[in-house]
Amino acid sequence: MQTLTITVPDELSAQLEPYRDSLGDLLAMALRQIHMGEALALFQQGGVSLWKAARIAGVSLREMTQYAVAHGVRAAVDEPTLQEELA
φ, ψ for residue 54 (rounded to 5)? Predict the structure, then answer.
């Protein structure tokens, strides 16, 4: 395990204080959300299917679908997409 030293504003440091013992977990959760957001953006741009976006984000299709719906994005399944995902 590596040690990472960062400088944060005093206000943020105060907000992080209750989580001092679990900062690694907090960072992992934040990175997961970032990956999901980036993958969803690729999906919205039409660059990938929702299934592929889930793989990019490292989550299940179900979780990615729930994330998309929570962000107001609905997946339309057309025949080419269905064939791609079944292949």
Answer: -65, -45
